[in-house]
Amino acid sequence: MKKIFYFSMAVAATFAFTACEKTGNGNQEETDPNFTENEGSFTYYGETYKTVTLENGSVWMAEPLRYVPEGLTPSENPADASAHIWYPYSISEDGTAVAATDEETIQANGYLYDLQAVFGSEITADNCGSFEGVQGICPKGWHIPTRADYLALCGYSNKTDETGAAPETDETAQFYDAGYNGGKVSSFNDAGWNFVLSGWMQRANFGAEGKYANTPVLSESNCSVETFYGKPALTYYMTSTLYKPVTDSEGELSNIQFFSLMTTFTKTYTEGRVTLAYASSVAGQQVRCVKDAE
């Protein structure tokens, strides 16, 4: 497991500012000594990740992010809201979800992050719309995917918060399948994107207690891909695109929702449907970085 660093509050404030700066087209005047980009991979803080160039020209991480930001420590307890980053998990035969701290599972599934961990800043009603396309904890020249980045892959998204908005379909998206009205997990994998079904740390709003999502579990009843059996059916991939802040009946802010890439497995979608839905900013999600357009 990679080394975890700690830092003072002053340095934390500096990180919160620089980590959220957008990196433009990736032509940086300053190089990052912790990042080396190669053909088909990059190394970031000592961890090497495979990358894949898709037919539409976009370049993606082909593995989940495993970087631990300075000052944070992964937690084995999904109910620990102060952690902001959690270990991956596995589901036992009795259906219990258990944190997995072994190196093999971390390498395969990465960590689960909330938006504060990824953006280096508390997410508030005042700033929640300012993170679109930011670098976050991705390496320089890369960024946290936007709704548009993922829509170009899966081809279907829930509506935005704009007045009169409707769900959006892009039949030209690389992995769009008309029968699924969205992408297919199997199509992502066939292209080398390596869709990892890591699940998510389920936390619906600020007041909810976090838990590892363990239902439904994939089996022959809802999945036709045997290698997926035993994995969580719901996996969420983070985006940097805001859906909307949510207030309760007393007008108090109770949640901030962002778009996320989501899997759905049913008797109809046995290969795994992939669409853009909503997730809370305090939920724990898998992170992939995408390279800035040149």
- The ordered H/E elements are HEEEEEEEHEHEHEEEEHEEEEEE
Strand order of the largest sheet: 12-13-18-17-16
- Provide the residue-averaged pLDDT: 91
Sheet having the most strands: 5 strands, antiparallel
Structure classification: alpha+beta
Which range best describes the helical content: under 10%, 10-25%, 25-40%, 40-55%, 55-70% or over 70%?
A: 10-25%
Our Rg estimate from Cα atoms comes to 18 Å
Shape descriptor reads: globular
| Strands, total number | 19
Q: Give the number of helices.
A: 5
Proportion of beta-strand residues: 25-35%
Unreliable runs: 1-28
Roughly how many Å apart are the termini? 33 Å
Walkthrough of the structure:
Residues 1-28 have low confidence and may be disordered. By secondary structure, this protein is of the alpha+beta class. The relative contact order is 0.18. It is 12% helix and 26% strand. The two termini are 33 Å apart. Strands 12-13-18-17-16 form a 5-stranded antiparallel sheet.
